Amino acid sequence: MSEFSNERHASDFAQPRFNLESELRAKRDTGKKLLLPYVTAGIVPNWLDLVDSLVDAGADAIEIGIPFSDPALDGPTIEAAGVMALERGVRPQGILAELRERSFGVPLIAMTYYNLVFRYGHERFAADLVAAGGSATILPDLPREMAGEWRKAAAPHGIANVLLAAPVTTDQRLIILANETEGFLYTVNTMGTTGERQTMDDAGAALADRVKAVSDTPAIVGFGISTPEHAVKATRSADGIIIASALMRKLINGEPIEAVAQLVSEIRIALDTA
Q: How many CA atoms lie within 13 A of 168 on its CB side?
């Protein structure tokens, strides 16, 4: 008997085009540093073109932010980007429908909040995410201890559930998170919310070193990485970086999607030549 709901086997479910962890590990193991840009879905009418541009600019996977009205972990830039998208009338179901219109050459990771998934319905969200090309979720407000229902729904669809670790995470808990995360371990660079920083401290690098001491799980640093220099510094220890606010700030300021792709390209070159 299957452990999954309705006594169905994983082979009965559509699977993602990409296995996130396999893709990231394969690239990392060649010595490549991983680059994961973030896009708030619906922030501009041509946001799908932006996703395409970021793939061309060298992204290894892309976080698709599904806007939520109460983004507790996000700083003012990502919050403002979400407001822009919501004011344009975008909603989760419409975002996933738009994503179904295209096929992208890298894994897509849905970044949102658990209340949205809960209201959407676990099974329905999992099925619709895979149909939209999604490979994983990041639900920062869903602790691992409370993630059982979502993981049970996501597992047969092959959806990875990415967990987060912070600089204050204890050694014992870090081992648990590194063993239980799927895809990679999101290592938070600084305490607090997301957002651009002028300088970057060593907390993220130190956390990545701690992960590597206990696990082979890819450790990818996010929060506050805004420049190619930040990215290079972070990846002296980490396997890759996530960049979000610095990209969405350009769109909020009215810059074209080409300007966003240019920054990602500059970071890709910096990581490849460091």
A: 3
Active-site residues, by number, are 63, 74
CA distance 127 to 156: 10
pTM to 2 decimal places:
0.91
Query: How far is residue 207's CA from residue 237's CA, in Å, rounded to a whole number?
Result: 9
- Hey, what are 200's tokens? 């970057």
Exposed / middle / buried, residue 86 (Cβ in 10 Å: 0-12, 13-18, 19+): middle
The string of pLDDT tens digits covering residues 134-145 is: 999 999 999 999
Residue with tokens 């090309």: 133
Tokens of 203: 């907390």
DSSP SS3 for 119: helix
Is 49 in a helix, a strand, or coil? helix
Tell me, what amino acid is at 102? R
109: left (phi over 0), alpha (psi -120 to 50) or beta: beta
Give 48-76 pLDDT, tens digit per residue: 999 999 999 999 999 999 999 877 777 89
Residue 11 structural domain:
5-273
The CATH number linked to 10 is 3.20.20.70
Backbone torsions φ then ψ of 164, nearest 5 degrees: -115, 145
C-alpha–C-alpha distance, residues 80 and 40, integer Å: 10
**Count: domains in the chain:** 1
Distances (CA, A) of 131 to 19, 102, 111, 262: 14, 11, 16, 30
* Closest C-alpha to 171, from 206, 131, 222: 206
The identity of residue 92, as a single letter, is P
**DSSP helix/strand/coil, 30:** coil
